[in-house]
Write a structure and sequence with these properties.
This protein has helices spanning 9-42, 50-76, 81-104, 109-114. The chain is mostly helical. The chain has one domain (9-114).
């Protein structure tokens, strides 16, 4: 794959906005991987294998960055803005499938044992 930028203003504007939406949509999962890495570094005593917990967070972040990069490169190969929008919607649906599938399964024993998780402390709280 390689970047193939076309001199087409509507196509470039569409590429910019679909890339921006994709990036904003991936900030949450990227932050989760970063928090996982930080937590495993700051609290290694809570893990049986803290290095493995760190690597899982690192791999999660790298997968998101790689998927975003590939989608941008594939987007530059499109010839029409409609194709870009269709590709973005398809990619977004694929990335949301695990969340939709997990939310549809309410009878998982481990999910019932945990219950609903809520954040009690904000990011900027000391």
């Amino acid at each position: 794959m390689q970047f193939k930028l076309n001199n087409n203003t509507p196509l470039q504007i569409t590429l910019f906005f679909t890339t921006l939406l994709l990036h904003i949509g991936n900030l949450g999962p990227f932050r989760s991987g970063l928090y996982m890495m930080k937590y495993s570094l700051c609290h290694p005593e809570e893990f049986t294998h803290p290095k493995l917990a760190f690597m899982i967070g690192f791999m999660y972040m790298n997968i998101i960055v790689t998927a975003e990069w590939v989608n941008i490169m594939k987007g530059t190969e499109k010839k029409k803005p409609q194709d870009l929008i269709t590709g973005y919607i398809g990619f977004k649906v694929i990335t949301e499938l695990p969340k939709v599938y997990l939310n549809s399964m309410s009878d998982i024993p481990i999910k019932a044992a945990i219950g609903k998780l809520t954040a009690t402390k904000g990011r900027k709280d000391p």
